[in-house]
Amino acid sequence: MDPQDQHRLDLAVTRRLRELPDLPAPETLVPSVMASICARAVVPWYRRSWPAWPVALQGASLVLMLALFGGLCYGGWKLSQTESLSLAMRPLGEWFSAAGLIWRTLAVLGDALFLSVKQLNPAVLIAFIAVSFFSYTACIGLGTAFFRHARWQENHL
Amino acid sequence: MTDAQQFETFMRNYQNMVFSTSMRLLANHAEAEDVAQEVFLKAYERWDQLRDSPTVGGWLKTVATNLSLNHLSRYRARWSFFSELFSGDNEDREQENNFIAPQDESGADSRHEEVELALQQLPPAQRVPLILYHFDGLAYEEIAEKLKISMGKVKTDIFRGRETLRKKLRLTLE
Lengths: 157, 174
Description:
Number of strands of chain B: 2
Helix content of chain A: over 70%
Number of helices of chain A: 5
Shape of chain B: globular
Largest sheet of chain B: 2 strands, antiparallel
Largest interface: A-B, 33 and 49 residues
Order of helices and strands of chain B: HHHHHEEHHHH
Structural class of chain B: mainly alpha
Largest sheet of chain A: none
CATH architecture of the largest domain in chain B: Orthogonal Bundle
Number of strands of chain A: 0
Distance between the termini of chain B: 52 Å
Number of domains of chain B: 2
CATH superfamily of the largest domain in chain B: Winged helix-like DNA-binding domain superfamily/Winged helix DNA-binding domain
Radius of gyration of chain A: 34 Å
CATH class of the largest domain in chain B: Mainly Alpha
Shape of chain A: flat
Order of helices and strands of chain A: HHHHH
Number of helices of chain B: 9
Helix content of chain B: over 70%
Strand order of the largest sheet of chain B: 1-2
Oligomer: heterodimer
Distance between the termini of chain A: 43 Å
Structural class of chain A: mainly alpha
Protein backbone atom coordinates (compact mmCIF):
# COMPACT_ATOMS: atom_id res chain seq x y z
CA MET A 1 0.00 0.00 0.00
CA ASP A 2 1.48 3.36 -1.01
CA PRO A 3 1.65 6.36 1.38
CA GLN A 4 -1.33 8.04 -0.29
CA ASP A 5 -3.50 4.98 0.28
CA GLN A 6 -2.19 4.85 3.85
CA HIS A 7 -3.30 8.41 4.39
CA ARG A 8 -6.74 7.69 2.94
CA LEU A 9 -7.11 4.62 5.13
CA ASP A 10 -6.06 6.73 8.13
CA LEU A 11 -8.83 9.25 7.35
CA ALA A 12 -11.39 6.52 6.69
CA VAL A 13 -10.67 4.78 10.01
CA THR A 14 -10.78 8.11 11.90
CA ARG A 15 -14.14 8.94 10.35
CA ARG A 16 -15.63 5.49 11.09
CA LEU A 17 -14.44 5.55 14.68
CA ARG A 18 -15.46 9.13 15.47
CA GLU A 19 -19.00 8.62 14.20
CA LEU A 20 -19.55 5.89 16.80
CA PRO A 21 -22.09 6.84 19.47
CA ASP A 22 -21.24 6.41 23.16
CA LEU A 23 -21.85 2.96 24.59
CA PRO A 24 -24.58 2.82 27.23
CA ALA A 25 -23.16 2.67 30.75
CA PRO A 26 -24.48 -0.20 32.89
CA GLU A 27 -27.52 0.59 35.01
CA THR A 28 -25.54 -0.33 38.13
CA LEU A 29 -22.87 2.37 37.67
CA VAL A 30 -24.65 5.38 39.22
CA PRO A 31 -26.12 3.44 42.21
CA SER A 32 -22.74 1.85 42.97
CA VAL A 33 -20.93 5.22 42.89
CA MET A 34 -23.61 6.80 45.11
CA ALA A 35 -23.34 3.85 47.54
CA SER A 36 -19.54 4.30 47.72
CA ILE A 37 -19.98 8.02 48.37
CA CYS A 38 -22.49 7.33 51.17
CA ALA A 39 -20.16 4.70 52.68
CA ARG A 40 -17.29 7.20 52.64
CA ALA A 41 -19.41 9.90 54.25
CA VAL A 42 -20.00 7.85 57.40
CA VAL A 43 -16.29 7.04 57.90
CA PRO A 44 -14.94 9.17 60.83
CA TRP A 45 -12.30 11.78 59.94
CA TYR A 46 -9.42 9.92 61.64
CA ARG A 47 -9.96 6.86 59.42
CA ARG A 48 -9.76 8.87 56.21
CA SER A 49 -6.55 9.81 54.38
CA TRP A 50 -4.83 12.98 55.62
CA PRO A 51 -5.85 15.16 52.62
CA ALA A 52 -9.51 14.38 53.39
CA TRP A 53 -9.26 15.64 57.02
CA PRO A 54 -10.94 18.95 57.98
CA VAL A 55 -8.58 21.90 57.37
CA ALA A 56 -8.37 22.83 61.08
CA LEU A 57 -7.33 19.29 61.99
CA GLN A 58 -4.81 19.23 59.14
CA GLY A 59 -3.25 22.44 60.51
CA ALA A 60 -3.27 21.16 64.11
CA SER A 61 -1.72 17.83 63.13
CA LEU A 62 0.96 19.62 61.10
CA VAL A 63 1.89 21.84 64.07
CA LEU A 64 1.94 18.81 66.39
CA MET A 65 4.18 16.80 64.03
CA LEU A 66 6.57 19.74 63.64
CA ALA A 67 6.71 20.19 67.43
CA LEU A 68 7.40 16.47 67.87
CA PHE A 69 10.14 16.54 65.27
CA GLY A 70 11.71 19.64 66.81
CA GLY A 71 11.50 18.06 70.29
CA LEU A 72 13.15 14.87 69.09
CA CYS A 73 15.97 16.80 67.41
CA TYR A 74 16.52 18.92 70.52
CA GLY A 75 16.37 15.86 72.81
CA GLY A 76 18.83 13.98 70.62
CA TRP A 77 21.24 16.90 70.64
CA LYS A 78 21.03 17.27 74.44
CA LEU A 79 21.48 13.53 74.94
CA SER A 80 24.59 13.45 72.75
CA GLN A 81 26.21 15.94 75.15
CA THR A 82 25.79 13.79 78.25
CA GLU A 83 28.40 11.23 79.38
CA SER A 84 25.78 8.66 80.25
CA LEU A 85 25.11 8.22 76.54
CA SER A 86 28.43 6.47 75.93
CA LEU A 87 27.57 4.05 78.76
CA ALA A 88 24.15 3.45 77.25
CA MET A 89 25.69 2.83 73.82
CA ARG A 90 28.12 0.16 75.04
CA PRO A 91 25.73 -2.85 74.58
CA LEU A 92 25.06 -1.61 71.05
CA GLY A 93 28.80 -1.58 70.30
CA GLU A 94 29.10 -5.14 71.60
CA TRP A 95 26.25 -6.25 69.37
CA PHE A 96 27.97 -4.69 66.34
CA SER A 97 31.24 -6.45 67.16
CA ALA A 98 29.38 -9.80 67.23
CA ALA A 99 27.83 -9.00 63.85
CA GLY A 100 31.31 -8.13 62.55
CA LEU A 101 32.55 -11.56 63.62
CA ILE A 102 29.75 -13.28 61.70
CA TRP A 103 30.53 -11.16 58.65
CA ARG A 104 34.26 -12.07 58.78
CA THR A 105 33.38 -15.80 59.05
CA LEU A 106 31.09 -15.54 56.04
CA ALA A 107 33.79 -13.71 54.06
CA VAL A 108 36.34 -16.49 54.83
CA LEU A 109 33.82 -19.15 53.74
CA GLY A 110 33.10 -17.20 50.53
CA ASP A 111 36.82 -16.97 49.75
CA ALA A 112 37.22 -20.71 50.31
CA LEU A 113 34.32 -21.44 47.96
CA PHE A 114 35.77 -19.13 45.30
CA LEU A 115 39.21 -20.82 45.55
CA SER A 116 37.70 -24.31 45.25
CA VAL A 117 35.67 -23.24 42.15
CA LYS A 118 38.89 -21.84 40.64
CA GLN A 119 40.55 -25.25 41.07
CA LEU A 120 37.80 -26.96 39.06
CA ASN A 121 38.26 -28.05 35.44
CA PRO A 122 36.79 -25.40 33.03
CA ALA A 123 34.85 -28.17 31.24
CA VAL A 124 33.08 -29.06 34.50
CA LEU A 125 32.23 -25.40 35.06
CA ILE A 126 30.84 -25.01 31.53
CA ALA A 127 28.80 -28.19 31.92
CA PHE A 128 27.42 -26.92 35.23
CA ILE A 129 26.42 -23.57 33.71
CA ALA A 130 24.85 -25.35 30.71
CA VAL A 131 22.84 -27.70 32.93
CA SER A 132 21.64 -24.74 35.03
CA PHE A 133 20.63 -22.84 31.91
CA PHE A 134 18.74 -25.79 30.40
CA SER A 135 16.99 -26.49 33.71
CA TYR A 136 15.89 -22.87 33.88
CA THR A 137 14.57 -22.80 30.29
CA ALA A 138 12.88 -26.19 30.81
CA CYS A 139 11.07 -24.75 33.87
CA ILE A 140 9.85 -21.76 31.84
CA GLY A 141 8.82 -23.99 28.92
CA LEU A 142 6.96 -26.48 31.10
CA GLY A 143 5.35 -23.68 33.10
CA THR A 144 4.11 -22.04 29.91
CA ALA A 145 2.81 -25.33 28.51
CA PHE A 146 0.93 -26.15 31.74
CA PHE A 147 -0.47 -22.62 31.89
CA ARG A 148 -1.75 -22.87 28.30
CA HIS A 149 -3.13 -26.34 28.92
CA ALA A 150 -4.99 -25.12 32.02
CA ARG A 151 -6.45 -22.14 30.14
CA TRP A 152 -7.42 -24.35 27.21
CA GLN A 153 -9.25 -26.70 29.57
CA GLU A 154 -10.95 -23.75 31.24
CA ASN A 155 -12.23 -22.49 27.88
CA HIS A 156 -13.23 -25.82 26.36
CA LEU A 157 -14.68 -27.83 29.25
CA MET B 1 -31.38 20.35 44.74
CA THR B 2 -28.87 18.85 47.20
CA ASP B 3 -25.19 18.22 46.45
CA ALA B 4 -25.79 14.49 46.09
CA GLN B 5 -28.67 15.03 43.66
CA GLN B 6 -26.58 17.46 41.60
CA PHE B 7 -23.74 14.96 41.46
CA GLU B 8 -26.12 12.18 40.43
CA THR B 9 -27.45 14.32 37.57
CA PHE B 10 -23.88 15.15 36.56
CA MET B 11 -23.02 11.43 36.53
CA ARG B 12 -26.05 10.57 34.43
CA ASN B 13 -24.98 13.20 31.89
CA TYR B 14 -21.44 11.90 31.55
CA GLN B 15 -21.66 8.20 32.42
CA ASN B 16 -21.91 6.97 28.82
CA MET B 17 -18.88 9.00 27.70
CA VAL B 18 -16.75 7.83 30.65
CA PHE B 19 -17.84 4.20 30.29
CA SER B 20 -17.25 4.23 26.49
CA THR B 21 -13.74 5.62 26.94
CA SER B 22 -12.82 2.84 29.38
CA MET B 23 -14.69 0.13 27.51
CA ARG B 24 -12.95 0.88 24.21
CA LEU B 25 -9.52 0.78 25.83
CA LEU B 26 -10.10 -2.23 28.09
CA ALA B 27 -12.57 -4.24 25.98
CA ASN B 28 -13.96 -5.73 29.16
CA HIS B 29 -17.33 -4.74 30.57
CA ALA B 30 -16.64 -5.39 34.27
CA GLU B 31 -13.22 -3.72 34.24
CA ALA B 32 -14.60 -0.71 32.34
CA GLU B 33 -17.36 -0.34 34.94
CA ASP B 34 -14.79 -0.47 37.76
CA VAL B 35 -12.70 2.21 36.08
CA ALA B 36 -15.76 4.40 35.41
CA GLN B 37 -16.69 4.12 39.08
CA GLU B 38 -13.17 5.17 40.09
CA VAL B 39 -13.35 8.15 37.71
CA PHE B 40 -16.59 9.41 39.28
CA LEU B 41 -15.26 8.93 42.81
CA LYS B 42 -12.27 11.10 41.86
CA ALA B 43 -14.67 13.63 40.37
CA TYR B 44 -16.64 13.68 43.63
CA GLU B 45 -13.45 14.47 45.58
CA ARG B 46 -13.00 17.54 43.35
CA TRP B 47 -16.69 18.33 43.00
CA ASP B 48 -16.28 21.88 44.33
CA GLN B 49 -13.87 22.73 41.49
CA LEU B 50 -15.58 20.67 38.80
CA ARG B 51 -19.24 21.54 39.27
CA ASP B 52 -18.99 24.84 37.35
CA SER B 53 -15.99 24.02 35.17
CA PRO B 54 -16.59 24.27 31.42
CA THR B 55 -13.83 21.69 30.78
CA VAL B 56 -15.27 18.97 33.00
CA GLY B 57 -15.93 16.67 30.01
CA GLY B 58 -12.28 16.83 28.97
CA TRP B 59 -11.16 16.24 32.56
CA LEU B 60 -13.35 13.15 32.85
CA LYS B 61 -12.11 11.77 29.52
CA THR B 62 -8.45 12.31 30.45
CA VAL B 63 -8.90 10.66 33.86
CA ALA B 64 -10.82 7.75 32.31
CA THR B 65 -8.06 7.26 29.72
CA ASN B 66 -5.26 7.42 32.29
CA LEU B 67 -6.97 5.10 34.76
CA SER B 68 -7.72 2.60 31.97
CA LEU B 69 -4.08 2.64 30.86
CA ASN B 70 -2.95 2.21 34.49
CA HIS B 71 -5.37 -0.69 34.83
CA LEU B 72 -4.00 -2.32 31.69
CA SER B 73 -0.39 -2.02 32.82
CA ARG B 74 -1.08 -3.01 36.43
CA TYR B 75 -3.38 -6.00 36.05
CA ARG B 76 -2.57 -7.39 32.66
CA ALA B 77 1.23 -7.16 32.53
CA ARG B 78 1.51 -10.46 34.37
CA TRP B 79 -0.37 -12.24 31.58
CA SER B 80 1.37 -10.60 28.66
CA PHE B 81 4.47 -12.81 28.87
CA PHE B 82 2.44 -15.97 28.43
CA SER B 83 -0.16 -14.58 26.05
CA GLU B 84 2.38 -13.11 23.63
CA LEU B 85 4.19 -16.44 23.33
CA PHE B 86 1.23 -17.87 21.47
CA SER B 87 -0.49 -16.33 18.48
CA GLY B 88 -3.57 -18.52 19.15
CA ASP B 89 -4.37 -16.33 22.13
CA ASN B 90 -6.47 -14.06 19.92
CA GLU B 91 -9.16 -16.75 20.00
CA ASP B 92 -9.31 -16.49 23.80
CA ARG B 93 -9.52 -12.73 23.62
CA GLU B 94 -12.40 -12.91 21.19
CA GLN B 95 -14.25 -15.09 23.65
CA GLU B 96 -13.58 -12.59 26.44
CA ASN B 97 -15.23 -9.73 24.58
CA ASN B 98 -18.58 -8.84 26.04
CA PHE B 99 -19.68 -5.96 23.92
CA ILE B 100 -23.08 -4.40 24.47
CA ALA B 101 -24.25 -2.39 21.50
CA PRO B 102 -26.02 0.92 22.04
CA GLN B 103 -29.71 0.70 21.23
CA ASP B 104 -31.49 3.45 19.38
CA GLU B 105 -35.16 4.02 18.65
CA SER B 106 -35.09 1.93 15.48
CA GLY B 107 -33.18 -0.99 17.02
CA ALA B 108 -29.52 -2.03 17.00
CA ASP B 109 -27.31 -0.04 14.69
CA SER B 110 -25.53 -2.89 12.99
CA ARG B 111 -22.83 -0.77 11.35
CA HIS B 112 -21.73 0.74 14.65
CA GLU B 113 -22.03 -2.63 16.31
CA GLU B 114 -19.76 -4.11 13.66
CA VAL B 115 -17.10 -1.41 14.24
CA GLU B 116 -17.26 -1.77 18.04
CA LEU B 117 -16.92 -5.54 17.77
CA ALA B 118 -14.01 -5.29 15.34
CA LEU B 119 -12.27 -2.85 17.72
CA GLN B 120 -12.72 -5.09 20.72
CA GLN B 121 -11.40 -8.10 18.86
CA LEU B 122 -8.09 -6.37 18.19
CA PRO B 123 -5.29 -7.43 20.55
CA PRO B 124 -4.66 -4.76 23.24
CA ALA B 125 -1.23 -3.92 21.78
CA GLN B 126 -2.97 -2.74 18.59
CA ARG B 127 -6.29 -1.53 19.99
CA VAL B 128 -4.92 0.86 22.62
CA PRO B 129 -2.59 2.94 20.38
CA LEU B 130 -5.19 2.87 17.59
CA ILE B 131 -7.84 4.36 19.88
CA LEU B 132 -5.47 6.95 21.31
CA TYR B 133 -4.53 7.97 17.77
CA HIS B 134 -7.90 7.96 16.01
CA PHE B 135 -10.30 8.78 18.85
CA ASP B 136 -8.24 11.03 21.08
CA GLY B 137 -6.16 12.51 18.26
CA LEU B 138 -2.85 11.97 20.07
CA ALA B 139 0.40 12.15 18.08
CA TYR B 140 2.70 9.11 17.77
CA GLU B 141 5.19 10.70 20.21
CA GLU B 142 2.51 11.29 22.83
CA ILE B 143 1.24 7.71 22.52
CA ALA B 144 4.77 6.32 22.80
CA GLU B 145 5.30 8.40 25.94
CA LYS B 146 1.97 7.36 27.49
CA LEU B 147 2.47 3.67 26.78
CA LYS B 148 6.24 3.75 27.48
CA ILE B 149 7.08 2.05 24.19
CA SER B 150 9.14 3.15 21.17
CA MET B 151 7.62 5.31 18.46
CA GLY B 152 8.45 2.62 15.89
CA LYS B 153 6.34 0.11 17.79
CA VAL B 154 3.47 2.61 18.05
CA LYS B 155 3.51 3.12 14.26
CA THR B 156 3.71 -0.61 13.55
CA ASP B 157 0.89 -1.46 15.97
CA ILE B 158 -1.38 1.28 14.60
CA PHE B 159 -0.60 0.16 11.03
CA ARG B 160 -1.44 -3.45 11.85
CA GLY B 161 -4.58 -2.51 13.75
CA ARG B 162 -5.78 -0.33 10.89
CA GLU B 163 -5.13 -3.14 8.39
CA THR B 164 -7.10 -5.60 10.52
CA LEU B 165 -9.98 -3.11 10.77
CA ARG B 166 -9.87 -2.51 7.01
CA LYS B 167 -10.22 -6.23 6.35
CA LYS B 168 -12.88 -6.83 8.98
CA LEU B 169 -14.96 -3.81 8.06
CA ARG B 170 -14.23 -4.10 4.33
CA LEU B 171 -13.31 -0.41 4.31
CA THR B 172 -12.94 1.05 0.85
CA LEU B 173 -10.54 3.89 0.08
CA GLU B 174 -12.43 6.75 -1.54
